[in-house]
Specification:
Elements lengths: L2 E15 L3 E8 L3 E7 L18 E8 L4 E10 L2 H4 L2 H17 L7 H16 L4 H15 L19 E4 L4 E3 L11 E3 L1 H12 L12 H18 L5 H6 L3
Parallel strand pairs: 3-5
Antiparallel strand pairs: 1-2, 1-4, 2-3, 4-5, 6-7, 6-8
Length: 246
Amino acid sequence: MPAATTVTGMVLSAMPVGDYDKRLVILTRELGKISAFAKGARRPNSALLACSQPFSFGVFSLFTGRTSYTVTSSEISNYFPELRDDIESVYYGMYFCEFTDYITKENNDEGEILKLLYQTLRAVAKKTIELPLIRLVFEFKIMALSGVAPQVFSCVKCEKVEADYLFSVYSGGLLCEDCKSNDNSAIRLCTSSIYTLQYIISKNVDNLYTFRVKQEVLSELETLIKRYLDYYLNHEFKSGELLRTL
């Protein structure tokens, strides 16, 4: 007999299966990332219609089969309707979900990443800070939560603490003046960029989206994160291509 279980999570993606069903990828607090079938979710009068959409966050009741989960009911607490009403917000939301899907794993503790995704979509919905800054914060923080955090509090080679640094993607963090010869492609960062990185890496998820930066800092860190992701992920996101069309 299949066992029943209840999880709290967010739908990252939904794919049609057969004539009326959907296959959902859900990031859960209890089980990490899972795949679950929502049978009949594509029927107009289905009770699972609302919960089988990306961005849906809430409590999902599941049957656990031998090889898969099946959604039997749900209580959705946030659909993020603000995202669905704005094409730019939708594209950003899709990107954050696709990134999360790519970097998380099944049967892994992904509770902090789930919290990060939720708070990120809230920030997009509220638009209290610029969308490019939200993206930058998300990218650095999810990499840190996945165990690929750069060293941003001292020189990654000699551990010296000083005011001026360069950032070496290949070394995984800051280089001081004495160690900059270890990477001739290292990027020199202004003090504000270093402080911004330190804030993103050290703060808990609830306090991430509470600041703004000057355009020069944003541009500097956007160049940096692109190199960082190219080196450590080397993956092209389909939703990233959509963002480039904006």
